[in-house]
Amino acid sequence: MLMSTLCMRIVKATAAVLCVPLLLLGLASLTTPALAQITLNPVVCNGTDLATYSPPLINTEQSEQIQVSEQYSKCEVLDGSGITGASANYSVTRNLACTDVTGGPGMHVIQWSDGETSAYSYTVSDNFAAGNAVILFSGTITAGRYLGQTAITTFVISSGLSQANALSACAGPGINQLRGTATLVIAPKL
């Protein structure tokens, strides 16, 4: 019994001694871009969002063509990538009404200031808080820079769209644009 325990300890110690150099060789083979993908630092970008609806949103659900332009003029990034900004310009078709301006899950591509991209898959929710419409995208980076990391985008609509204004506009000619501030946060999954 004592001999088998001693043998097991020797085997474990030998395995550890052999594995450490292999692990170091594996880490040494990672390139700088690969190491950047492992960053523990969050990315925080601030900017603006503009969504244009055609035809204008009304109280009755209808097919909408939505053109979205997200412009992030300031990004705080501590991973050494040199990113200073980002943008996302995309178009989607959804069945929407004024009571739900989001239309469910989606995907779009974020274009970083250095030319790299990130594919962002998300679910969408909307709410009214402090008199403003707030739209929240919550999801994951599924390809490109920051692959596998969590992403959250918050849009605070500042184009005078309070809940009362929205109900009034939707009963009349409808709403053809929503604009406001945008914040994008990307962080590692924990």
Walk me through what this model shows.
This is Ig-like domain-containing protein. It comes from Trinickia terrae. Keywords: Signal. The chain is α+β, with helices and mostly antiparallel strands and 190 residues long. It folds into 2 domains: 1-30; 35-187, AOC barrel-like. Helix content is 22%, strand content 51%. The protein has an 8-stranded antiparallel β-barrel with strand order 1-2-3-4-5-6-7-8. The longest helix has 27 residues, at 2-28. Residues 1-39 have low confidence and may be disordered.
> Quick check: average pLDDT?
77
Strand order of the largest sheet: 1-2-3-4-5-6-7-8
Q: What coarse outline follows from CA principal-axis ratios?
A: elongated
Taken together, the total number of domains comes to: 2
Number of strands: 8
Count of alpha/pi helices: 3
The CATH topology of the largest domain is AOC barrel-like
Could you give a short account of the major beta sheet?
8 strands, antiparallel, barrel
CATH architecture designation of the largest domain: Beta Barrel
CATH C-level label of the largest domain: Mainly Beta
Helix and strand run: HHEEEEEEEHE
SS-derived structural category: alpha+beta
**Beta-strand percentage?**
over 45%
List low-pLDDT spans: 1-39
Share of residues in helices: 10-25%
Radius of gyration (Å): 24 Å
Protein name: Ig-like domain-containing protein
Keywords: Signal
Signal peptide: 1-36
